[in-house]
Amino acid sequence: MTDPLVVVGGDAAGMSAASKCKRDSPETDVLVFEKGEWVSYGACGLPYYVKGEIRELDDLVSVTAEEFREERDVDLRTNHEVVAIDTEARTVTVDSPDGTFDQPYEDLLVSTGARAVEPPFEGMDLDGVFTLHSMESARDVRAYLHEDAEWLAAETGSGYGETVHEYAAMESPDAVAVVGGGYIGIEMAEAFAAHDHEVHVFEMLPTLLQPFGEAAADVVAEHLRDQGVHVHLNTAVESFEGDACVRSIRTDSGSFDVDMALVGVGVAPNAELAEAAGIDLGETGAISVDDYGRTSAAHVYAAGDCAEARNLVTGEPDHVPLALTANRAGRAIGQTLAGDPTPTGGIVGTAVVKAFDLEVARTGVIDEERAREAGFDPVSVTITDETRAHYYPGGTEIQITMVGDRESGTLLGASMVGEEGVSKRIDTVATALHADMTVSEVEYLDLAYAPPFSPVWDPVLTAAKVLAGKLEG
Amino acid sequence: MTDPLVVVGGDAAGMSAASKCKRDSPETDVLVFEKGEWVSYGACGLPYYVKGEIRELDDLVSVTAEEFREERDVDLRTNHEVVAIDTEARTVTVDSPDGTFDQPYEDLLVSTGARAVEPPFEGMDLDGVFTLHSMESARDVRAYLHEDAEWLAAETGSGYGETVHEYAAMESPDAVAVVGGGYIGIEMAEAFAAHDHEVHVFEMLPTLLQPFGEAAADVVAEHLRDQGVHVHLNTAVESFEGDACVRSIRTDSGSFDVDMALVGVGVAPNAELAEAAGIDLGETGAISVDDYGRTSAAHVYAAGDCAEARNLVTGEPDHVPLALTANRAGRAIGQTLAGDPTPTGGIVGTAVVKAFDLEVARTGVIDEERAREAGFDPVSVTITDETRAHYYPGGTEIQITMVGDRESGTLLGASMVGEEGVSKRIDTVATALHADMTVSEVEYLDLAYAPPFSPVWDPVLTAAKVLAGKLEG
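^ inputs. structure came back:
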């Protein structure tokens, strides 16, 4: 009898692979070890759960553990942590509630995800200081805000542990420090502001949302300030201070009274398990994989936030831990393991984030230094345009930065920010990047026009037109 | 001294060419003859002017005649109609307020636009029966609705003629017949409904919005009915009846009492002037042009709604009279005539229309018969998905039809309909068509995801995934 396909980690990549493999090859045994309780949940929704727009954590689950077991016939073991991989013996060592055991595998998928980076600040262990790294942590944050005592009482009945009670019993915060001005920081600033807390965002770099480029980030910072958020740029956090609870945050620009803090300074791939097994990591620190998700060890695959993916613009491995990449790579590996070899697909680094009333999006290579490292001679323009025909009511400004390569005229990337029509407009540019289009080719795209939806020349076309002019000039 | 560049028709294509040529080559004399009063206006905005969302006709003008003359140094003659072209002598004959004269040209651009088709129904000349073919006609329609007497009084002071007074003096209509269920028909149904008139839409074909495909059109028809519009499909209009004013509309499915009618059964290219000069028309009836907008006559170009453009999906000349195509071709020809030969660019037939609360969009080849004529073996799927993450509030349904070629796997086209995120999502597919992508390549696009803006797998990816499966099957 063949050993099973073993999957380590039951979120997007892992469960996509397990489901796809089982569907295409029902005779394959598929065994998933998940160290926590939750599987296949929408971590991207956690800020909106804290904000209160999503009522229950369960709402974030797309497929439950039971459904995987009963409907998809996946042998899913929650509370099972894989602590070692032996790539020679083709076994994993598993800590379970019933003890430790070794499990042989035919093929192995490492989909251990990523974790919130915990910076070495003094006072990280004070009550009221959180990271947003899991369903449980989001519940704790929401409990600490506890504007909603009845809901909490109901929730705590359903077996999620005692921390919720503890946090709900503490005093509700007045001022919240958000440490880190990336996606999570921006989304959480919105969530806290929605609860009428005073919000401070601290960012070490000169701009928020660094991967979105300075021009977009400046618009976001101004918008956050308009919303009453205190934005502290070029500000390094040094420590949290307090007794049991945090009472202030100390930075290189002074101290600020806060009684809650959310630390979102980035994520790191959970690559230690693979590394300890002698599997190669890439320069990014994530697990190195080929176009089919294969690691350096035979029969071992990796996918999701713990693994690299090929950036189609630079041609180099990249680490952009996002949901679509994880789902897609997991699904492709499941298909490969079911007997139909399927590449996991490259990425172009497309991302979008909501920042209060703004949509902010990016794709490709925007950073000029990074472009030069990849061998390009970047030329960039930033334009401001309208989202609708000039005469049609309700239009808003949209700002687009577009970058191209001087020598080849190739499109390299773009960022956008505005109140509407940003999130899907970036996809036009992403598609052009997949097709390796020149900026002039983008200028000639036949895009949709009607007065309620864009000017005759869509802002993407206008940006390309201006950039093409500059590239020729 | 060289003769001037002469442009016939001062709307999108003509004024784009004139402006671009003059900007790039200030020494070239540019002479534009426009038979009416208005230049460079947003005809696409007329339904929203009638609806009342746009207050004044002047708001639709992007650049005024004066600005063209004074700021752009274009010799623009309004109320000058070109009545003949002599391609041998290189002259045009012009009827002007001061008499008829011949004007020599170095190069000639025919940008005479298109007109509303006037079907040979009895009673077309009754009061209350309109087409929407010009700024003036839109003003007449709005005057006839005259819910806004003060505004009318003010407007009629500014020299736009007496018809507005006449129409405003007539009785306000109760029920309006919209004849034709294309763009104009749908947009005007929305405009009339906004004024609380009873609205009937009559369409000869089995579906509204025929170029958008049956699946999208069915959703639109249902939505219009939900909005209280009477939708009559498979219904041929025979005549209008009444005394001075229209009182009823007779169809092959019976008569209906109406006291106003808007006939929007399509547009026809104004190609007669060119045809009379011996210039070749294409099979579509529009003026045939090469990739630089050159007609069959030396030194004569054509652009805009009177001319064909190359459809990049079929490789054949096509006639899709839309604003972006006109602007782009005009601009390219202006650049060419300024000494920098520039192709006008192909089209993929992208279009979007607002239908009450819906956005409806299309691109490429959707119609299976047309696909077969172009040498493809079309395979199509229709999926329904959500516009946001399943747990994020406010998401709505989006329906996508996607078509591919069985043998090559090439993407051929798509249509979409939904309450949000349609108008710019179609651009992703349009861009993929420009790049000649396969359906599988579309499935692997790295599109933007965040819970407020799409599911992890954007509906475009899901449609491509399902279609790719069917193409392989």
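Chain B touches chain A through 65 residues (CB under 8 Å). Chain B has three domains: 5-43+56-112+268-337, 129-265, 359-472.
thumbs up if we can close this ticket
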